Amino acid sequence: MMQETRHCQLPDRFLVGNVLSGLKQAVQVYTEAALEAATPASRRMFQQLAHDAMMKFEQLESMAEQHRLFDAADVPVSQLRVQQVSRLAAETASHLRQLVNARLSGRHIPQYTNTATVKPPEFMLPHEVPFAVPAGPFEPDTKQEEAAEKKALPKRGRKAKGVPSAVEAEVNSESHL
Amino acid sequence: MIGMNMPRGGGLTDVELSYIEKGIHMEERVICLMTQAAVECTEPHFRSFFAHYAERSQERLADLNAMLANGGVFR
Fold first, then answer.
1. How far is B29 from chain A (nearest CA, A)?
2. Structural domain range at position B58
3. Ordered alpha helix ranges (H), chain B
């Protein structure tokens, strides 16, 4: 007959705390994996795993809060500590401003302009997408397109006469030789 | 760094494989802890929560296994 191993019973808050810690570690690992994934499909998979672990963490944490397992979170932060951190933030900002001004003043650095048509990342939420999606189904306006083509054709013809194409230019240069 | 970890022949990279391995260990750890909590918690809500997720634990491992079974080719 098997003898049941007896051990000290842990309180609920330790058991829940252990699971929360495990889930937190899983979220960190999966998030890191998603960042370093080589293909979009494997990235999606790791993101999904991270999301699942995060959801479980959130559910368990809210249950723990309901049952008042952890009361440390209810302790209000002291005003002194808030002031310390805000002072640190202000000092850092001023220090960085000085550093950037000192390093960049007197140097000619072209202004950064993001002209490239950047495709929004796959994980961008719909409300963050910079372009508006048409409300109804897309129907091409053929009349306008035809009119635009008619306008463009003669222009192209004139341009072709005036400016020689790359092939023509090459032929001309060869004939000169 | 993003983009530095590209597969050469189409498939999983070393980095991805090591993360899958880590993921399997993470799942194992979480499931063991959940099973212990499902047995030992005094609060019935917690017991049912942990039992539910411990039973459904195979899904996550199946996802990780699918990545390996496909040879890591997701295109």
1. 7
2. 14-69
3. 14-40, 44-55, 58-69
In a domain, B74, yes or no: no
Domain ranges, ordered by start, for chain A: 12-103
Answer yes or no: is the ipTM higher than 0.90.
no
What distance in Å separates the CA atoms of residue B37 and residue B27, rounded to the nearest whole number? 15
Q: What is the pLDDT of residues A45-54, one digit of tens each?
A: 999 999 999 9
Residue B7 lies in a domain: no
B58 located within any domain: yes
Tens-place pLDDT, residues A81-140: 999 999 999 999 999 999 888 888 888 877 777 766 656 566 656 555 555 555 555 555
pTM: 0.61
Chain B residues with CB within 8 Å of chain A CB: 2, 5-7, 12-13, 15-16, 19-20, 22-23, 26-27, 29-30, 33-34, 36-37, 40-43, 45-46, 49-50, 53, 60, 63-64, 67, 72, 74-75
